[in-house]
Amino acid sequence: xxxxxxxxxxxxxxxxxxxxxxxxxxxxxxxxxxxxxxxxxxxxxxxxxxxxxxxxxxxxxxxxxxxxxxxxxxxxxxxxxxxxxxxxxxxxxxxxxxxxxxxxxxxxxxxxxxxxxxxxxxxxxxxxxxxxxxxxxxxxxxxxxxxxxxxxxxxxxxxxxxxxxxxxx
Length: 169
Hints:
This protein is mainly α. It contains seven helices and two strands.
């Protein structure tokens, strides 16, 4: 029972082909809904993978799900080929009002003018993070990789870089 949540995030990450956490699940679901993408269906069945299947003797992979599919007569849809995205602990910005002029300006700078660095400066609580995430969601299709990391309470730089390098590999 203790590992159920972890197993759920692993299955969802496999299905969406990007790291899924409780903090970014809603954003990922909305993005796929908007794009009418087909994701690998992870059906709910009476089959419960054994601890060996979950804990490394058989790594969780699409091939393992296919084997499970064949043994359980479960229909899986095709895999998604979508740019690599890791939203980390990005906040949910599904409810976002105003700031349209700022979003248009930022989108012009980053996409049209290909600006490599943009600073969002302001007092705490003004919505800089929400604005940045909303911008990233709007322009994500222009990039091969999207990586979001909060630097508040960030791990040491070597751990952060190792995590990003692993994602890019």
